[in-house]
DNA sequence: CCCGAAGACTGATGTCGATCAGCCCAGCAT
DNA sequence: ATGCTGGGCTGATCGACATCAGTCTTCGGG
């Protein structure tokens, strides 16, 4: 093992990477940069920017409507790409805001595409990672389109827990969560007021407690049932591609 | 030019492919198959299946909830992949239903990954196509999360028009559309009853008429304004990668 | 020490869209 | 010719969630 960044850990879960491949991956990381919470790193409509890999902290990608509403599309945690799609499509269709202070490493598209040429398996790995992100957005769409506020919140908190558990940042008891109720509202297509009420209901039902930057699963099984949560697509075991 | 399938047309818009690359792409197409409208080709939870490229007709990908509701995630038109994500993630997180009778060509994953090794630029092209699909799902998420029923419908019809126009199947006057009002309801997170009312309102407002398998834009500009539709991310000009 | 801002929280009121319960028409099978 | 099915269409009613208009606490800055 040459490197053990969150990215390597994530991709390694899918493709067993050789040492040369790992070193190509490591060479992608250019400048290390930091951004403060709340100050966008990418703006909707912006063009010609770099992509990043999140090293520490949380970020979110969102779209703004002309009437001022916003929809948070996804949250990113360490190991996730920031703005990869923007770079490939050559213009950003969304903005990215750090939820906490974050550290990232810059990746130049040219380098990434070169790396694909040198080590095509890396291309497969990145395609896989992109598919995984898309699956997340799809699940989010179902959440917003077909579940009521309570189920939606429950499902979201569970899914995030599962996702964090994969990188060792949470378990069935709960996880640290720096999101505000406003973040939840913007992500779930609810008003902040209603988010607050729904959280109270879930808490009073003894299922989950969201408080002081921490999500505590008070009754994991009941919550799973209530949210119709199916964790199967999250857990797969070991590299698929040898 | 060796081939001029919808797929080549689509990918060619992004990556200028050489003749050897085109022939690799052509060699991916295996068996040609047909499926009848309404009979799923991929079931949620299914594993080990092939991917397809849609040659003619329309399909939709959707997720089923345990309470019987369904959310249509996206519609596919000729040139689009069917089930690529399912294959990469090794299990299908969604089902796919032909909206009309369809023709597809089968693609074996192994062949696809081999092709990446032979011609890495192909990998980039497929990654780009996947990003474009993801952008579509993201826009759909915003639709469902933050727009009211009228705007949602208007935006959806416009976006689909733009998408069809790209492959020569529609323009600012309208397009042929085989969807039922039930399809629209399942896609937009509305009830079929409400879809009907909303369509009536849009028709009576003189903006768009959905009838007899045809969408007619009666007042394109007004509709664009009403839906806050921003077509910019759809139109890009010529291959980005030389 | 006070002020302002951010975030959590709450009650009252209003509305958008779901649900229920139908009708109508065209196409098709019996 | 009769009934059945799928799709489009409609009125009445109801409830989930938005909106408005606040309060309270904490925290950092002047």
TrEMBL record, chains A, B:
<keyword id="KW-0804">Transcription</keyword>
<feature type="domain" description="Cyclic nucleotide-binding">
    <location>
        <begin position="13"/>
        <end position="88"/>
    </location>
</feature>
<keyword id="KW-0808">Transferase</keyword>
<dbReference type="InterPro" id="IPR012318">
    <property type="entry name" value="HTH_CRP"/>
</dbReference>
<dbReference type="GO" id="GO:0003677">
    <property type="term" value="F:DNA binding"/>
</dbReference>
<keyword id="KW-0238">DNA-binding</keyword>
<feature type="domain" description="HTH crp-type">
    <location>
        <begin position="147"/>
        <end position="221"/>
    </location>
</feature>
<dbReference type="Pfam" id="PF13545">
    <property type="entry name" value="HTH_Crp_2"/>
</dbReference>
<dbReference type="InterPro" id="IPR000595">
    <property type="entry name" value="cNMP-bd_dom"/>
</dbReference>
<dbReference type="InterPro" id="IPR018490">
    <property type="entry name" value="cNMP-bd_dom_sf"/>
</dbReference>
<dbReference type="InterPro" id="IPR036390">
    <property type="entry name" value="WH_DNA-bd_sf"/>
</dbReference>
<keyword id="KW-0418">Kinase</keyword>
<dbReference type="InterPro" id="IPR036388">
    <property type="entry name" value="WH-like_DNA-bd_sf"/>
</dbReference>
<dbReference type="InterPro" id="IPR014710">
    <property type="entry name" value="RmlC-like_jellyroll"/>
</dbReference>
<dbReference type="Pfam" id="PF00027">
    <property type="entry name" value="cNMP_binding"/>
</dbReference>
<dbReference type="GO" id="GO:0006355">
    <property type="term" value="P:regulation of DNA-templated transcription"/>
</dbReference>
<protein>
    <submittedName>
        <fullName>cAMP-binding domain of CRP or a regulatory subunit of cAMP-dependent protein kinases</fullName>
    </submittedName>
</protein>
<keyword id="KW-0805">Transcription regulation</keyword>
<dbReference type="GO" id="GO:0016301">
    <property type="term" value="F:kinase activity"/>
</dbReference>
């Amino acid at each position: 093992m040459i490197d053990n960044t969150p990215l390597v850990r994530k991709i390694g879960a899918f493709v067993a990477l050789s040492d040369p491949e790992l070193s190509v991956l490591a060479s992608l990381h250019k400048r290390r940069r930091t951004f403060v919470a709340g100050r966008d790193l990418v703006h909707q409509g912006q063009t010609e920017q770099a992509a990043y890999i999140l090293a520490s902290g949380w970020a979110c990608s969102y779209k703004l409507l002309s009437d001022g509403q916003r929809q948070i599309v996804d949250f990113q945690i360490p190991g996730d790409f920031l703005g990869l799609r923007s770079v490939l499509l050559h213009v950003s269709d969304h903005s990215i805001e750090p939820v906490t202070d974050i550290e990232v490493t810059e990746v130049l598209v040219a380098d990434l595409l070169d790396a694909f040429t040198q080590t095509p398996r890396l291309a497969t790995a990145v395609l896989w990672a992109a598919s995984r992100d898309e699956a997340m957005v799809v699940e989010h769409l179902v959440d917003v389109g077909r579940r009521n506020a309570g189920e939606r919140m429950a499902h979201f908190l569970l899914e995030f827990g599962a996702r964090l558990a994969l990188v060792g940042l949470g378990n069935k008891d709960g996880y640290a969560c720096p999101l505000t109720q406003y973040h939840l509202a913007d992500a779930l297509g609810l008003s902040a007021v209603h988010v607050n009420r729904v959280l109270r209901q879930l808490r009073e039902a003894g299922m989950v407690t969201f408080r002081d930057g921490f999500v505590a699963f008070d009754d994991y099984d009941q919550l799973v049932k209530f949210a119709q949560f199916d964790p199967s697509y999250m857990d797969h075991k070991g590299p698929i591609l040898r």
